Amino acid sequence: MPVLPRGQGWGEEHMNLHQEFEAAHADHTEILEFLNIWEGALGLAAGDDSDTRCAGLRQLQAMEGKIVEIWEHCRKEEDDSGSPLFRFAEPADCERMKEEHFRLYRANYEFRKEMEFTTSSFTEDLVLQGQRLLAALREHIAFEEELLGRFEHDKRFVEACAYA
User: Fold this and answer.
1) Which of 66, 75, 144 lies closest to 111, judged by CA?
2) Contacts of 158-163 spanning 24+ positions with Cβ under 8 A
3) What pTM does this model have?
4) What residue spans of the chain are helical by DSSP H?
5) Minimal CA–CA distance to 84: which of 145, 20, 6?
6) Residue 133: which residues within 8 A CB-CB, separation 6 or more?
7) H helices of 46-90, where?
8) What residues form DSSP beta bridges with 119?
C-alpha cells in the first residue's frame, strides 16, 4: 500500500479532493449564470430597432473581460496538473476536452473580433455567432459536469487520489 505524504491522512486528502470538485462545480455554475446574461445581451442585439440593438452591443462590449475569463478558465483546467477533470479522465476524454477547449478558444476569439466591427445597423452575424458559442459552451460544461459526477461517485478515483 502506498504511503501518504508525512502529516497527510486519507481524510485530509479526501477533503481536498471534495473541495476541488466543489470548486469545479462552482466555476461551471458561475459560467452558466453568466451565459444567461450574455444570452440576454444577444437578444437585445438582435432587437428590431436600432436603439435596442445598440444597447445590446454596449452590454456585450462591457462583458468582454468576462468573456475572456471563460477562455482563461479552460486554459487553467488544462495547465493545472491537479485539476480533477484532467487528473482522472481517460485519455480519450482528456483529448476531447483539449479539442473542445481549442474550438471554444477560437470561437471566443472570433466572437470578440466580430464584436469589434459590428454596428447597430448590422448585428445578425454577431448574434448568430454568439448563439453558436453559447450552445457550444453549455454543451462542453455539461460534458465536464458529467465527468465530474462520474469521478465523484466512483470510489476508485477517490481512493486513487488518497494514495497519490
Assistant:
1) 66
2) 158/14, 158/17, 160/88, 161/13, 161/14, 161/17, 161/87, 161/88, 162/4, 162/10, 162/13, 162/14, 162/17, 163/1, 163/2, 163/4
3) 0.84
4) 10-45, 50-62, 64-79, 84-88, 91-117, 124-152, 155-162
5) 20
6) 104, 107, 108, 111
7) 50-62, 64-79, 84-88
8) 122
For residue 38, the one-letter residue type is: W
Q: What is the tens place of the pLDDT at every residue in 7-65?
A: 444 344 445 888 888 999 999 999 999 999 999 999 999 999 999 999 999 999 999 99
CB 88 within 8 A of CB 157: yes
Cell representation of residue 137: 459552451
Query: Which residues pair with residue 122 across a beta bridge?
Result: 119
Residue type, 74: C
| C-beta separation of 151 from 84 below 8 A | yes
Gyration radius of the chain over CA positions: 20
**Largest distance between two CA atoms of the chain:** 69
Q: What is the Cβ-side half-sphere exposure of residue 157, based on CA atoms within 13 angstroms?
A: 18
